[in-house]
Every structure is written in structure tokens, then in C-alpha cells.
Write a structure and sequence with these properties.
The protein has a 5-stranded mixed β-sheet with strand order 1-2-4-3-5. The protein has a 3-stranded parallel β-sheet with strand order 6-7-8, with helices on both faces. A hairpin with a 2-residue loop joins strand 1 and strand 2. 35% of the residues lie in helices and 19% in strands. The protein is α/β, with parallel strands linked by helices.
Length: 244
Amino acid sequence: MPTKTLLIPTADGLADAFASFPDHGERHPAVLMYPDGFGIRPALRELARELAGHGYYVLVPNVFYRHGPAPVIGLPEHIGEADRPDIFARLMPLIEAHTTEHARREVESCGGSPTTWQEAGRGFFVGAGCSPPSFPPPPPPAAHPGHVAAVAAFHAPVGADGPGLLSRLTGQAHFGHAEGDLTPEALGELNEALDAAGVGYTSEIYPGTVHGFTMPDTDAFSPAGLRRHWDRLLPLLDRALSDR
């Protein structure tokens, strides 16, 4: 899949982003892929390319752009358990500084209007998904309900305000939770809140998984969990975006 690095104007400066898209001249439905806490790196770029191969314009923003272009810190080829203490010692100040307001500004800048995607190249903003994980859960689906056709979150921390943030979403949502992140009781409470908010969704715990199961460059990776992720994500996007 063709790729490019974009510089997107935001209220806090220029944000770099990775884009991958089909090698055709026509426009394609757009997916905003929010990265996990380790940020943009080869494994995440490969997931974006794979998704683009299914006919989507995929944009992955560098959420740490306020601290520099990606990669903001050096990462090993494989992030093992022994590497995590040192990596998180460097990442946690960046993660803690990344507020919900920052997330809102980023996603509004990256996908808040069709103009943004027209300027990006072949993309046209008609919907958004969060895949693989997201931190914190980005609120813009509620800010731009007319543009967001689908949201998918995998091993993402869905807080108490998550259902409220998504309550104005007019599209569809899927939550794929790691077994290590959510108890069945907590899942029931979350689903009750989503029901009360009137969100159209599916929400399930992926058996035998821990936080980060979609990321092949970490010890948390689960091949079965990643396959289940694609089995849920691709039909969702196809239903939500095929007619856009």
C-alpha cells in the first residue's frame, strides 16, 4: 500500500501523521487509527497498511507531536516485559500530559471536516474508527456525530464517562476488551450504560487476552485476539462505510 507522512495544522502546532491508502486514484472511506501508548512505529504502520488494503484511507496521528515527531522515544524492535519499566519511565510524562482535551483537538484537526481529508490526498472523511487501541478514549465521535459512522476500540480503557462521550454517536460501535482488563461484572455495567445512552454497539471480552493483544511487537500479542479483531472490525467498517 502507498504511504506518506503528513503534517496537519492543529491548535498546538503541526502534528505529524502516517497515512496509508489503496493505490487507486479515486477517493476511499477514511479511518482514523488512534495509536496505543507506544505511539507510531513499524508494527502500527503495518496494521495501518493491512487495513488500507481492504479499501480504506487510514490516518494514524502522532499523539505525542507536542514533544516532537514520531518516534518521540527510541523503541526496541520487540517490546518485551523487561523493556517496559524503562520505556514507561520515559513515556509516562508524555501520556500523563496527553489530556482528553488534547485528544479532542487532535481528532478534530485530523478528521473534523471533509476538507482535511481532501487536502491529505485521496482520503475523504466520512467515518472514523479507533483501531487497534486508544488512550484515552477519544471523544470526537460525540463532537462530530454527522461525520463519524463507526467506532471500534480494542483493549481500550473505557472510563466511566465513555458512554456519555459516545451518546451522540449516530453510527455503530464495537468494543473488544482484553480479558485481563475487564471483569464480566464490569462488562455488564458498561453495556448497561451504553444501552441507557442509546448507542448501537457490540461489546465483548476476547477470551485469553491481555491488554495490548493486537500489537505483534509486544509480549501481550495474541494471534487469536488479532484475528478476532479483524473479524469484528472489517464487517463493521464495511456496513458503516460501504455506501459513503
